[in-house]
Design brief:
heterodimer; A: alpha+beta; six-stranded antiparallel β-sheet; five-stranded antiparallel β-sheet; 13 strands; 56% helix; B: alpha/beta; 2 domains; five-stranded mixed β-sheet; 4 helices
Chain lengths: 627, 148
């Protein structure tokens, strides 16, 4: 599975990296910018390979070999061109002796630990919802299944009116990427869809850090990366199999190519690459079509006034290439988009509807401060480094990143104004994800504005011997901290496990069965309410566990009798009231394997309140397994 | 002096930003537990539950070579499907599990029907003119139009 998943990932990454290298300014040694080229190559490669796979699905029931052949052909052509180029002249060799970079090393340590934590969280989030949340399975993975399972008949099937609810007009970068992974692996494992989604998340973090490091140095870059990793919605959503994180990658990539372009003002590869990124954004989501237009405007703004039209032509060329699959899909396969087919021009009166403006503004304000699902919203702290004339730290091209973000927000605002859907529902359902799409590019702009441009940054100088010793010591400390963090995380229990009880050296897991509500916590306590008849499963880690005693607190909503049976035998029976009581059951003798501990009660469950949606609760167990 | 002050301000505020980001990340780690352990109660993720519930009928549909569109009946009549959020969700999840066949809620026009009943139902509630071709348990059945 790992090998079969690695092959398409490495293949698309190599393809993307070759394309980025081909677009990179020729006089610069690509090796010195590899940190930036690699994340760009990851996202662009996934995008291009998805387009090639899409083409292959249209002609063959077994698209994987055709797609692989097409990828190899493109890679060979680009590779041959790269090989024919003259040797680079702009590379910078090691110069001088540097000081031990204390601040950078400490910050890099924090970033490393944060990255580790983010990976654990992302993997856990994927484990909780293997097929993603609603849009993940109902749109993106569903479309991927049609591409993978239906052969060349998928366009006709996806167009049947019965599937109109799944938005068959949505672009196919994510479904085709997922289907490509499945086709190469020979199995439609959910983990592979989560992998595609996660790769875009990793690429976004890498791109943000590498681009900021190039323009503003490593401190601003690492802090920017930490801000993104410290956005819970980004980290938990990265593996959720939606298209918003991939789109955020392409928005950021368009912003990055724009911001770095003044370094190589004559290079046409960068605007071409910006066009490719904007086109791939349109291949990701319908909102990306807006970006394709706005990124062009931002390029024009960033390079105004300029006599040559060649960069703009290069942008349009890159855009045209990347838009090919979008144009074919939209005109030859997809039904009309629901927003477009509602004839927005007929609803222009909505533009003057003040109530709609008020609703949209209030939603932007409400979701703007909460979309990241932060425990503490970071905006005040983010504003502190900007105190002073921060705009002087931005050149015109960097300022155009603000134009790109601002115009995109304005575009989203306009779409909400004209939406045929119920406006409140549409805002509630989608706005947080639209804001997330722009968040990495916003952090990039923020990081640029915190620090003055650093000209001629050179990290390649030699470090003195003492500095190496310091770095090695710091690396060892980091390993120890990472070990400690992983140990702590390892002690957390899954959602459906109440406790792991020690029974004479044998661990017995207490697993939640039927008849319980979600776990609740508060005041250092953890509890679960029962719906009435409910079951716990006892799972000893050993074939012959010794007898053990199970301890827990119990209280009830209303007075009732509760009975616990182990394999049909009553092991506890008692009156329970509103006041919590501590009880213990045992010693229990368990057979090998899972054994049910069934609870029953003589009184029906009671509504917890008179409000709508109130739960009917019977009794609650507290602190199961605590000594 | 001014440059030193501004450098110190920048370092201090960027440090604060880094600490706040770490705080948010640690909190997220605390509230994101590991994936569930296997249990006889089955997974709590509804999509995963439906995947397992429909695994048998998916294989049966594939083995019979059924393609294109087939009928779907749920726990509510087709005319009430769109008005019942729970029934709509059940229909969408069934469609996800059974792709690439397309499920048609107007089932009577199809020769085959996927029955998705959340509980066992008496035979008189089955659509008239169809018989149970195969019962997969948990309320999932494959129905076939009886010959006229």
């Amino acid at each position: 599975m790992i090998v079969s998943a690695a092959t398409p990932v490495i293949g698309s990454w190599l393809l993307g990296t070759l394309v980025v290298c081909a677009c990179w300014p020729r006089r610069v040694a690509v090796g010195s910018d590899l940190a930036l080229i690699l994340p760009l190559g990851l996202g662009i490669g996934l995008g291009l390979s998805s387009a090639l796979f899409f083409a292959a699905t249209l002609v063959s029931p077994r698209p994987a070999p055709i797609s692989a052949g097409l990828e190899l052909a493109v890679a060979a052509v680009v590779g041959w061109r790269l090989w024919r180029w003259p040797a680079p002249t702009g590379g910078e060799g090691p110069t001088g002796v540097r000081r031990f970079p204390v601040g950078t090393a400490l910050l890099a340590s924090l970033f490393g630990q944060a990255g580790l934590l983010a990976i654990v969280i992302t993997v856990r989030a994927a484990g909780r919802e293997p097929y993603g949340s609603w849009d993940g399975w109902a749109i993106w993975n569903l479309h991927a299944r049609f591409l993978f399972r239906a052969g060349p008949a998928w366009p006709a099937l996806l167009n049947t009116p019965q599937l109109g609810w799944s938005h068959p007009d949505y672009p196919l970068l994510v479904p085709a990427s997922v289907a490509r992974m499945w086709a190469f692996a020979g199995s439609d494992a959910a983990a592979l869809s989560a992998l595609v989604s996660t790769l875009f998340g990793v690429g976004t973090v890498g791109l943000l850090v590498a681009a900021t490091a190039l323009l503003r140095g490593r401190i601003a870059a690492l802090v920017g990366g930490l801000v993104l990793l410290g956005t819970p919605f980004f980290v938990t959503f990265a593996s959720n199999e939606h298209a918003d994180i991939p789109l955020s990658f392409f928005v950021l990539a368009a912003a990055v190519t724009l911001a770095i372009s003044p370094r190589w003002p004559r290079a046409l590869g960068l605007p071409a690459m910006a066009g490719i990124c904007a086109g791939l954004a349109a291949w990701t989501k319908n909102e990306g079509l807006l970006l394709a237009v706005i990124a062009g405007l931002a390029w024009a703004f960033g390079h105004w006034p300029r006599r040559s039209w060649r960069p703009m032509l290069a942008y349009l060329g890159g855009l045209a290439v990347a838009l090919l699959p979008v144009v074919y899909f939209k005109f030859a396969i997809a039904p009309a988009n629901d927003l477009v087919s509602s004839h927005p021009a007929d609803h222009l009166a909505r533009l003057a509807d003040l109530a709609r403006h008020r609703l949209i503004w209030s939603a932007f304000w409400r979701d703007g401060v909460r979309f990241g699902e932060w425990r503490v919203a970071p905006f005040f702290v983010l504003a502190l480094p900007l105190i002073g004339p921060f705009w002087r730290r931005l050149n015109r091209a960097e300022g155009a990143v603000a134009v790109l973000i601002g115009l995109t927000l304005a575009g989203y605002y306009g779409v909400y104004l004209l939406t045929p859907w119920d406006l409140s529902w549409h805002l509630e359902y989608s706005l947080v994800r639209l804001l997330l799409q722009l968040w990495p590019a916003t952090i990039f702009l923020w990081a640029l504005a915190t620090t003055a441009p650093i000209e001629g940054v050179n990290y390649s100088g030699r470090l003195p011997g003492r500095a190496w010793k310091g770095l090695i010591a710091l690396g060892l400390v980091n390993l120890a901290v990472a070990g400690g963090v992983l140990t702590l995380l390892n002690r957390q229990l899954p959602d459906n496990e109440l406790a792991v009880v020690q029974a004479g050296g044998v661990k017995v897991a207490v697993i939640v069965g039927d008849g319980w509500f979600e776990r609740e916590t508060g005041g250092g306590e953890t509890w679960r309410w029962s719906k009435g008849a409910s079951t716990l499963w006892l799972d000893p880690a050993d074939r012959n566990p010794p007898p053990f005693t199970l301890r827990f607190g119990i209280r009830s909503l209303g007075r009732r009798t509760v009975t616990a049976r182990l394999g049909g035998r009553v092991v506890w029976h008692g009156q329970v009231g509103e006041a919590r009581e501590e009880i213990q059951i045992g010693p229990l003798e368990l057979p090998a394997g899972l054994t049910p501990l069934a609870f029953s009660t003589d009184e029906p469950a009671v509504l917890e309140s008179a409000s709508p949606g109130a739960r009917a609760l019977a009794f609650a167990l507290y602190g199961v397994g605590r000594k | 002096m001014r440059t030193k002050l501004s450098g110190a301000w920048r370092a201090a505020t960027l440090g604060l930003v880094a600490l706040m980001a770490l705080f948010n990340l640690f909190f997220t780690a605390q509230t994101t537990p590991p994936p569930e352990v296997a249990s006889p109660a089955g997974p709590s993720d509804p999509t995963l539950r439906q995947e397992r519930r429909f695994a048998g009928i998916r294989a049966a549909i594939r083995d019979r070579g059924l393609k294109g569109t087939i009928g779907y009946v749920g726990s509510v009549p087709p005319s009430q499907l769109l008005a019942d959020a729970g029934a709509v969700e059940a229909y969408y999840r069934a469609q996800f599990a059974l792709a690439p066949v397309v499920l048609d809620p107007a089932a009577e026009r199809e020769d085959w029907i996927v029955a998705d009943f959340t509980r066992a139902i008496p035979a008189w509630k089955m659509p008239r003119g169809w018989r149970v071709e195969q019962d997969f348990g948990a309320g999932v059945k494959l129905l076939r139009k009886e010959a006229p």
